[in-house]
Design goal:
The complex is a heterodimer of chains A (about 120) and B (about 110). In chain A, about 0% of the residues lie in helices and about 55% in strands. Chain A has strands at about 10-15, 20-25, 30-40, 45-50, 55-60, 60-65, 70-75, 85-95, 100-105, 110-115. In chain A, a hairpin with a 6-residue loop joins strand 3 (about 30-40) and strand 4. Chain A starts with 9 loop residues before the first strand and ends with a strand. Chain B has no helices and eleven strands. In chain B, the strands form two sheets. In chain B, strands 2, 4, 5, 6, 9, 10 and 11 form a seven-stranded mixed sheet that branches. In chain B, strands 1-3-8-7 form a four-stranded antiparallel sheet, with no helix packed on it. Classes of the chains: A mainly beta (about 120), B mainly beta (about 110).
Protein backbone atom coordinates (compact mmCIF):
# COMPACT_ATOMS: atom_id res chain seq x y z
CA UNK A 1 0.00 0.00 0.00
CA UNK A 2 0.94 3.65 -0.15
CA UNK A 3 2.72 5.51 2.61
CA UNK A 4 3.76 9.03 3.44
CA UNK A 5 7.37 10.04 2.87
CA UNK A 6 10.15 9.81 0.32
CA UNK A 7 10.37 6.02 0.03
CA UNK A 8 7.66 4.80 -2.25
CA UNK A 9 6.29 1.29 -1.88
CA UNK A 10 7.49 -1.00 -4.64
CA UNK A 11 6.05 -4.04 -6.33
CA UNK A 12 8.10 -6.31 -8.58
CA UNK A 13 6.40 -8.91 -10.74
CA UNK A 14 7.25 -11.20 -13.61
CA UNK A 15 5.81 -10.57 -17.03
CA UNK A 16 2.51 -12.36 -17.37
CA UNK A 17 1.72 -12.32 -13.66
CA UNK A 18 -1.20 -10.40 -12.21
CA UNK A 19 -0.36 -7.29 -10.18
CA UNK A 20 -2.29 -5.81 -7.28
CA UNK A 21 -1.54 -2.28 -6.14
CA UNK A 22 -3.17 -1.08 -2.95
CA UNK A 23 -4.19 2.31 -1.67
CA UNK A 24 -5.61 3.33 1.70
CA UNK A 25 -7.57 6.57 1.63
CA UNK A 26 -8.24 8.77 4.59
CA UNK A 27 -11.56 10.52 4.02
CA UNK A 28 -14.69 8.45 4.51
CA UNK A 29 -16.61 11.22 2.71
CA UNK A 30 -14.70 10.69 -0.55
CA UNK A 31 -17.09 9.81 -3.35
CA UNK A 32 -14.91 9.31 -6.39
CA UNK A 33 -11.57 7.62 -6.94
CA UNK A 34 -9.11 7.46 -9.80
CA UNK A 35 -6.02 5.46 -10.64
CA UNK A 36 -3.24 7.08 -12.63
CA UNK A 37 -0.10 5.67 -14.22
CA UNK A 38 2.99 7.83 -14.46
CA UNK A 39 5.97 6.84 -16.56
CA UNK A 40 9.34 8.46 -16.02
CA UNK A 41 9.44 12.01 -17.33
CA UNK A 42 5.76 12.08 -18.25
CA UNK A 43 2.54 13.37 -16.81
CA UNK A 44 0.06 11.10 -15.02
CA UNK A 45 -2.12 9.10 -17.37
CA UNK A 46 -5.71 8.20 -16.47
CA UNK A 47 -6.29 4.45 -16.09
CA UNK A 48 -9.68 3.88 -14.49
CA UNK A 49 -12.09 5.51 -12.08
CA UNK A 50 -14.84 4.39 -9.72
CA UNK A 51 -17.63 6.13 -7.83
CA UNK A 52 -18.42 5.37 -4.24
CA UNK A 53 -21.73 3.69 -5.13
CA UNK A 54 -19.77 0.89 -6.79
CA UNK A 55 -17.54 -1.86 -5.39
CA UNK A 56 -15.85 -2.93 -8.60
CA UNK A 57 -15.19 -1.64 -12.05
CA UNK A 58 -13.39 -3.30 -14.91
CA UNK A 59 -11.47 -1.91 -17.84
CA UNK A 60 -9.12 -3.40 -20.36
CA UNK A 61 -6.80 -5.65 -18.30
CA UNK A 62 -7.46 -3.54 -15.20
CA UNK A 63 -9.95 -3.84 -12.36
CA UNK A 64 -10.48 -1.41 -9.51
CA UNK A 65 -11.95 -2.62 -6.23
CA UNK A 66 -13.35 -0.29 -3.60
CA UNK A 67 -13.90 -1.32 0.02
CA UNK A 68 -15.53 1.60 1.77
CA UNK A 69 -15.74 -0.21 5.08
CA UNK A 70 -11.98 -0.18 5.50
CA UNK A 71 -11.33 2.76 3.17
CA UNK A 72 -9.25 0.69 0.77
CA UNK A 73 -8.82 0.86 -2.97
CA UNK A 74 -6.93 -1.59 -5.16
CA UNK A 75 -5.88 -1.76 -8.78
CA UNK A 76 -5.49 -5.17 -10.36
CA UNK A 77 -3.57 -5.49 -13.61
CA UNK A 78 -3.98 -8.77 -15.46
CA UNK A 79 -1.13 -10.35 -17.43
CA UNK A 80 1.28 -7.58 -16.49
CA UNK A 81 3.61 -6.45 -19.27
CA UNK A 82 6.96 -4.62 -19.19
CA UNK A 83 5.16 -1.56 -20.54
CA UNK A 84 3.14 -1.48 -17.34
CA UNK A 85 6.27 -0.54 -15.37
CA UNK A 86 5.57 2.89 -13.87
CA UNK A 87 4.49 4.69 -10.71
CA UNK A 88 0.81 4.21 -9.94
CA UNK A 89 -1.16 6.81 -7.99
CA UNK A 90 -4.60 6.64 -6.49
CA UNK A 91 -6.54 9.86 -6.03
CA UNK A 92 -9.73 10.65 -4.13
CA UNK A 93 -12.35 13.36 -4.58
CA UNK A 94 -13.63 14.44 -1.22
CA UNK A 95 -16.95 15.94 -0.23
CA UNK A 96 -17.48 19.03 1.81
CA UNK A 97 -19.32 18.83 5.12
CA UNK A 98 -22.55 19.86 3.41
CA UNK A 99 -22.33 16.96 0.97
CA UNK A 100 -21.21 18.72 -2.20
CA UNK A 101 -17.97 17.61 -3.75
CA UNK A 102 -14.87 19.69 -3.48
CA UNK A 103 -13.97 18.85 -7.02
CA UNK A 104 -10.36 18.61 -5.94
CA UNK A 105 -8.38 15.41 -6.09
CA UNK A 106 -6.07 14.37 -3.27
CA UNK A 107 -3.29 12.09 -4.48
CA UNK A 108 -1.55 9.28 -2.68
CA UNK A 109 2.22 8.99 -2.66
CA UNK A 110 2.41 6.33 -5.37
CA UNK A 111 3.62 2.76 -5.80
CA UNK A 112 6.46 1.78 -8.11
CA UNK A 113 5.60 -1.22 -10.27
CA UNK A 114 8.51 -3.01 -11.96
CA UNK A 115 7.77 -5.78 -14.44
CA UNK A 116 10.60 -8.17 -15.24
CA UNK A 117 10.62 -9.89 -18.65
CA UNK B 1 -6.26 16.62 -30.32
CA UNK B 2 -3.08 17.60 -28.51
CA UNK B 3 -4.84 17.31 -25.16
CA UNK B 4 -3.06 19.39 -22.51
CA UNK B 5 0.09 21.20 -23.56
CA UNK B 6 2.57 23.02 -21.33
CA UNK B 7 5.43 25.41 -22.02
CA UNK B 8 8.28 25.53 -21.33
CA UNK B 9 9.34 21.92 -20.81
CA UNK B 10 12.31 22.92 -18.68
CA UNK B 11 13.45 26.15 -17.02
CA UNK B 12 16.28 27.26 -14.77
CA UNK B 13 15.76 30.39 -12.68
CA UNK B 14 17.81 32.30 -10.17
CA UNK B 15 16.30 33.09 -6.79
CA UNK B 16 14.11 36.16 -7.07
CA UNK B 17 13.42 35.88 -10.79
CA UNK B 18 9.89 35.62 -12.07
CA UNK B 19 8.34 33.48 -14.73
CA UNK B 20 5.02 32.29 -16.09
CA UNK B 21 4.19 28.69 -16.91
CA UNK B 22 1.73 28.32 -19.72
CA UNK B 23 -0.95 25.67 -20.11
CA UNK B 24 -3.54 25.12 -22.82
CA UNK B 25 -6.12 22.41 -23.46
CA UNK B 26 -8.08 21.68 -26.62
CA UNK B 27 -10.69 19.34 -25.10
CA UNK B 28 -13.24 22.09 -24.38
CA UNK B 29 -12.91 21.36 -20.67
CA UNK B 30 -14.38 23.73 -18.12
CA UNK B 31 -12.01 23.08 -15.22
CA UNK B 32 -8.25 23.44 -15.08
CA UNK B 33 -5.65 22.79 -12.39
CA UNK B 34 -2.03 23.37 -11.48
CA UNK B 35 -0.13 20.80 -9.42
CA UNK B 36 3.43 20.43 -8.26
CA UNK B 37 5.22 17.12 -7.81
CA UNK B 38 8.27 16.73 -5.63
CA UNK B 39 10.54 13.64 -5.55
CA UNK B 40 8.89 10.65 -3.94
CA UNK B 41 5.63 12.48 -3.38
CA UNK B 42 2.28 12.59 -5.00
CA UNK B 43 0.85 15.64 -6.69
CA UNK B 44 -0.22 18.63 -4.61
CA UNK B 45 -2.77 21.09 -5.89
CA UNK B 46 -1.55 24.69 -6.15
CA UNK B 47 -4.54 26.46 -7.73
CA UNK B 48 -7.54 25.48 -9.75
CA UNK B 49 -10.15 27.09 -11.95
CA UNK B 50 -13.55 25.43 -11.79
CA UNK B 51 -14.74 27.38 -14.82
CA UNK B 52 -13.69 30.28 -16.98
CA UNK B 53 -13.53 33.42 -14.88
CA UNK B 54 -12.98 31.70 -11.53
CA UNK B 55 -9.86 30.64 -9.68
CA UNK B 56 -9.34 29.25 -6.21
CA UNK B 57 -6.51 28.19 -3.96
CA UNK B 58 -5.49 24.61 -3.55
CA UNK B 59 -3.30 22.95 -0.97
CA UNK B 60 -0.04 24.88 -1.56
CA UNK B 61 -0.82 28.31 -3.12
CA UNK B 62 1.80 30.45 -1.39
CA UNK B 63 4.28 32.03 -3.80
CA UNK B 64 2.10 31.49 -6.85
CA UNK B 65 -0.55 33.33 -8.81
CA UNK B 66 -2.77 32.13 -11.63
CA UNK B 67 -4.74 33.54 -14.51
CA UNK B 68 -7.53 31.81 -16.38
CA UNK B 69 -7.00 33.69 -19.61
CA UNK B 70 -9.90 32.05 -21.45
CA UNK B 71 -11.52 28.64 -21.52
CA UNK B 72 -8.44 27.05 -23.10
CA UNK B 73 -5.60 28.64 -21.17
CA UNK B 74 -4.56 28.68 -17.53
CA UNK B 75 -1.20 30.18 -16.53
CA UNK B 76 0.82 29.89 -13.34
CA UNK B 77 3.11 32.72 -12.28
CA UNK B 78 6.00 32.74 -9.86
CA UNK B 79 6.61 36.36 -8.93
CA UNK B 80 9.85 35.82 -6.99
CA UNK B 81 11.18 32.30 -7.36
CA UNK B 82 12.65 30.48 -4.37
CA UNK B 83 14.68 27.25 -4.24
CA UNK B 84 11.73 25.60 -2.48
CA UNK B 85 9.79 26.02 -5.71
CA UNK B 86 12.12 23.66 -7.54
CA UNK B 87 9.70 21.01 -8.70
CA UNK B 88 7.87 19.51 -11.64
CA UNK B 89 4.69 21.39 -12.44
CA UNK B 90 1.71 19.73 -14.07
CA UNK B 91 -1.32 21.32 -15.54
CA UNK B 92 -4.53 19.30 -15.82
CA UNK B 93 -8.04 19.79 -17.12
CA UNK B 94 -11.41 18.10 -16.68
CA UNK B 95 -14.81 18.41 -18.29
CA UNK B 96 -16.35 19.61 -15.05
CA UNK B 97 -15.20 20.00 -11.50
CA UNK B 98 -16.59 16.96 -9.80
CA UNK B 99 -16.47 13.21 -10.27
CA UNK B 100 -14.62 13.18 -13.55
CA UNK B 101 -11.07 12.37 -14.47
CA UNK B 102 -8.47 15.06 -14.82
CA UNK B 103 -6.15 14.84 -17.81
CA UNK B 104 -2.58 15.95 -17.38
CA UNK B 105 0.00 17.70 -19.51
CA UNK B 106 3.62 16.54 -19.88
CA UNK B 107 4.94 18.82 -17.14
CA UNK B 108 7.41 21.68 -16.73
CA UNK B 109 10.61 20.94 -14.85
CA UNK B 110 11.71 24.01 -12.89
CA UNK B 111 15.03 24.42 -11.14
CA UNK B 112 15.53 27.48 -8.94
CA UNK B 113 19.14 28.16 -7.98
Amino acid sequence: GESVGLHLPTLSVQEGDNSIINCAYSNSASDYFIWYKQESGKGPQFIIDIRSNMDKRQGQRVTVLLNKTVKHLSLQIAATQPGDSAVYFCAENSKKAGGTSYGKLTFGQGTILTVHP
Amino acid sequence: NAGVTQTPKFQVLKTGQSMTLQCAQDMNHNSMYWYRQDPGMGLRLIYYSASEGTTDKGEVPNGYNVSRLNKREFSLRLESAAPSQTSVYFCASSARQIQVAQYFGPGTRLLVL
